[in-house]
Each structure stands twice: as structure tokens, then as C-alpha cells.
Automatic annotation (TrEMBL):
Protein name stated in the entry: Mutator family transposase
Biological source species: Paraburkholderia humisilvae
Role summary: Required for the transposition of the insertion element.
Family statement drawn from the similarity comment of this UniProt entry: Belongs to the transposase mutator family.
GO molecular function: DNA binding; transposase activity
NCBIfam families: transpos_IS256
Keyword list, A-Z: DNA recombination, DNA-binding, Transposable element, Transposition
An annotated GO BP: DNA transposition
Tagged with keyword NADP: no
One matching Pfam family: Transposase_mut
InterPro entries tied to this protein: Transposase_mutator
Length: 229
């Protein structure tokens, strides 16, 4: 499933499909389906979990698109590689990264986490370091949008309803029927979606005005490009 944002700040479902274990080929098919009807430019930022198929497909179909990894999924992956006794402190240390006011402060918190845990728990720190740039991409976008682009919550919350309603019917209906049921459930969930914060910042973003630590760099010359939010 893919959710996009209109220039007015409204969230919209732009794609829903089934695929094989979130493979690259499955994602390529979805992205090409978006491109062929008239998606005029590459999305500025794609937010997702660690499913490698998505990122490989984006690199092929929309190589200009920046990648942002979901902080909740990443935190879960890191904590799974730590003993339970370390979870309380590790959660706080990870939160210091995600919630830093600037990229510079986030990098300091990032380095602190690596220094504290790398010697005893190298697998946990490896999971963090390999996606460092993708975890901090949001700093190059409007600060009002950070709460929306740091996680995949809009999709996760919608899918929670779908899973709840479809778990018991998964093996009892055909593929088209199952997809139709999921589509209708998601369509219904859309009615409660709210506009994103800072909708007025979408226009300068699409005009190519760069952002640093969430603030527009006014003295820069916009890079003219027609891109999707």
C-alpha cells in the first residue's frame, strides 16, 4: 500500500496491491503502475520499513527519491538485538536521536549510542549504523512534516483494521475477493484521515527550495522540478 500527500496537504491512497513477500519485482510492478498513468515526477521522499524489496524497486524506478526509514520499525529491530535489561536505557538513547532538533544534535546522540552499546552488543549497533542516512533524511524536509515522515504510522494504523477483519477469512475466500475486502476497509478508513501539518510548506518544497534542519534555506536558488510530495 502507498499513501501520498496532495499539494493541499491531504493524504490519499494511491496504490494497493498484493505481492510475493514484498519482493523487489512486486514493488517494481506497483511503482510502474503509478508511473504509467501519469505520475509526472519522482516522489521527493519515500517512507517505509526495512523491506529491502521496496528500496531496491525505488532505486530502479524512481532513483531520485530520498529514502526515510521508519523509526519505530528500526527501534524494534535494534531492541530485538539487545537483552531485556537494556531496553529502558536503549529506548531513551534512541529517542534522543529521533527527537533531536537538528541533524548535528542527532549525530551526536547517534555516536553516543554506538559508543555505549557497540562493544557488548555489536549486532544492535550494526542494525542502526547501516541505515544512518536513511534514518535522518527527514531533517532535509519541513519541520512541520517531521512527525508524519519519521514513521509509517498512517499505513500501520490503517492495516491494523484490515488485519483484524481479514485474519479469519484469509483462507476462506479467493484472491480477488480478499483484495476487494481489503480495498473497501481501507477506503472506509480514509474517511478519518487528517491533513498533514504545515500544508503551506508543500509548495516551496515542490518548487525546489531546500530545507536544512526543517527550515527553508531562503538564500538558495530553487531547483525547478515537478515532483510529488
Amino acid at each position: 500500500m502507498i499513501i501520498g500527500v496532495t499539494p493541499e496537504g491531504k493524504k490519499e491512497r494511491v496504490a494497493i496491491a498484493d505481492g510475493y513477500r514484498e519482493s523487489k519485482d512486486s514493488w517494481v510492478e506497483v511503482l510502474l503502475d503509478l508511473k504509467s498513468p501519469g505520475l509526472q515526477g519522482a516522489p521527493r521522499l519515500a517512507v517505509g520499513d526495512g523491506a529491502m524489496g521496496l528500496w531496491a524497486a525505488l532505486a530502479e524506478v524512481f532513483p531520485q527519491t530520498r529514502h526515510q526509514r521508519c523509526r519505530f520499525h528500526k527501534a524494534g529491530n535494534v531492541l530485538n538485538a539487545l537483552p531485556q535489561s537494556q531496553h529502558g536505557r536503549a529506548k531513551a538513547d534512541l529517542q534522543a536521536i529521533w527527537m533531536a532538533a537538528t541533524r548535528e544534535e542527532a549525530l551526536i546522540a547517534f555516536t553516543h549510542f554506538i559508543n555505549v552499546y557497540s562493544a557488548k552488543y555489536p549486532k544492535a549497533t550494526e542494525k542502526l549504523t547501516r541505515d544512518r542516512d536513511e534514518l535522518l533524511a527527514f531533517y532535509d524536509f519541513p519541520a512541520e512534516h517531521w512527525q508524519h515522515v519519521r514513521t509509517t504510522n498512517p499505513i500501520e494504523s490503517t492495516f491494523a483494521t484490515v488485519r483484524h477483519r481479514t485474519t479469519r477469512t484469509r483462507n476462506c475466500v479467493s484472491r480477488p475477493t480478499f483484495l476487494g475486502l481489503a480495498f473497501k476497509l481501507i477506503e472506509s478508513a480514509e474517511q478519518s484521515w487528517l491533513r498533514i501539518r504545515g500544508a503551506d510548506k508543500i509548495a516551496p518544497l515542490l518548487q525546489g527550495i531546500p530545507f536544512r534542519n526543517g527550515i527553508p534555506v531562503i538564500d538558495s536558488t530553487p531547483v525547478q522540478q515537478s515532483l510529488a510530495a
